[in-house]
Amino acid sequence: MFPIRDHNPSTRTPVVTYGLLGLNTLVFLFMWPLYGSHAATDLFMSYGMIPARLSDGAGTLTLISSMFLHGGFMHFAGNMLFLWIFGDNLEDMLGHGRFLGFYLLAGILAALAQFAGDPASPVPIVGASGAIAGVMGGYLLLFPKARVDILLIIVIIFKIVPVPAWLMLILWFGLQLFNSAASFGGDAGGVAHLAHAGGFIAGFVMVLPLWRRLGGASFWDRTSGHPDHPEARYRLTRSNVPQVGRRK
Questions:
Q1: What is the three-state SS of 107-166?
Q2: Percent of the chain with pLDDT strictly greater than 70
Q3: Strands 157-164 and 2-6, how do they pair?
């Protein structure tokens, strides 16, 4: 299952979220013709976060540059979908400048979590997943009962199901922890699960001061765990084709 949209439009234009989506898209389009070539490998090795290099005291700036590189189309598209769904509401609450700082710091802490798990690894870590996991952690704390539509796929059954954000986000976080433990000391299938889990925890913790200033549990009581504005309602557009009655 994966989310396709939420029911919680922001009250102001999320310019930082749009900017991050745009910057990631530009980098991906630049990389697109290079995938599978030595040029792409060189870029990953130069701008991806390599734990072994970081252990040697080099490559500090790759903690940021690695956030804007992706390993392929599905990696890029999945990350941008999650950022599109969850980023605007958190930016609404934090403000544009603080949200940008929050995003970058969450990404750095996520990369450091992956580094801590295997500081001698020579494999470059790339992707916005850790920073976006931080956004998801902050979203969970502020809007646990916001409605999110997920696409549920069971073999050949495709169904869109609205669920509370806490359910989808807790399941996602639990999966990252499980996969981190299952792959410890072995093959993680090319996925930085520790970075996901670390980013999620970092985002949750960084939003705690704001949640407390808003009133903590009383903030949830006032908003019912939703963003503090009317939710969007989706429905099929009514057809303009006139209905024709059945002949008797």
A1: HHHHHHHHHHHCCCCCCCECCCHHHHHHHHHHHHHHCCCCEEEEEEEECCEEEEEEEEHH
A2: 87
A3: unpaired
